[in-house]
Amino acid sequence: MLRVLAGLMWLYNVVWKNPPDFGRNSNSGLYEFTSAAVDHPVFPPFSWVVEHLVLPNFLLFGWLTLVLETVLAVLLLTGTFVRIAALLGIGQSLAIGLSVAEAPGEWPWSYFMMIGIHIVLLCTWSTRYFAVDAVRAQTRRGDGPHAAASLLRTWGIVLALLGVAALIASFQTGRWASVGGLVGTEDLQVGLGNYNLAGAIAVLVVAAFALAGAIRGSRELAYAGAALAVLAAVSIYLQSSRTDVWLGGTNTTAAVFLCAALVSVATGRLLRRPHRVAGAASKIMHPGGA
């Protein structure tokens, strides 16, 4: 649960890392928070690096931040290479703390806790449940197909619930309006992305492919769902500087689709239809049936 909580934290917070300028032109967003390392130094050598290397090359830094935090969200939520993700999380939490811990209104202890959470994930077994890493471990023990189908089915159910919530919300406000805050509230900074009617339908279709692939043991269905999820995420990123995104989504929405894609690919390759070998052998040995 701590792993999922950390994943949700990164998932929600990619929403305001907005390309193409990441707030540089308006001195807001990621640019404003990064500049705090210079305006309110925590560790002078780090402030020097930000001032002379990061800010002059800020667009590259912005994209690296968006990619890194998206990867953190996806790996932690899906339970994939969690110890690598934990190391990345320690580094990113430290960098954020060194940037803003002394800025007005910040609470420095929150960054100590962020680092501590990822140290716990690094040093403990946090992938026993609801994790691609657990599926890989069970595959080595010979139970890969069953574990893969179980994880894919669970994600299919989660995505279906999300899709239904997004569908209901789209009819309550405006079918093609972007609707967020489906889980928690904006004030508490908890959410699973923004969606309009098209986005809700896309989530439901991906969920249907995941559930059908898990139930039928079909890697083709799982891969089809993964392909659709990747296309949905790419479409959001390509329109990230617009206000009328086709699926009504944000960077967080794209990360949710990438989670679905990763799980579908990781489990899909292990799926196989059940074979009735025992039954067939019995009929050959006892054609009379008794």
Spell out the key features of this protein:
single chain; 290 residues; mainly alpha; 2 domains; disordered C terminus
Brief sketch in words of this structure:
With 290 residues, the chain is mostly helical. It has helices spanning 2-13, 29-39, 44-54, 58-78, 82-100, 109-123, 132-140, 144-173, 197-216, 219-238, 251-268, 277-285.
Given as residue ranges, the uncertain stretches (5+ residues, pLDDT < 50) are 274-290
Name the helix and strand elements from N-terminus to C-terminus, one letter apiece: HHHHHHHHHHHH
In terms of structural class, how would the helical and strand content be classed?
A: mainly alpha
Task: Give the domain tally.
Answer: 2
Oligomeric category: single chain
Q: Estimate the global geometry from the Cα principal axes.
A: globular
Describe it.
The chain is an all-alpha fold and 290 residues long. It folds into two domains: 122 residues, no CATH class; 127 residues, no CATH class. 67% of the residues lie in helices and 0% in strands. The longest helix is centred in the middle third of the chain and has 30 residues. It is globular, with a radius of gyration of 22 Å. The C terminus is likely disordered.
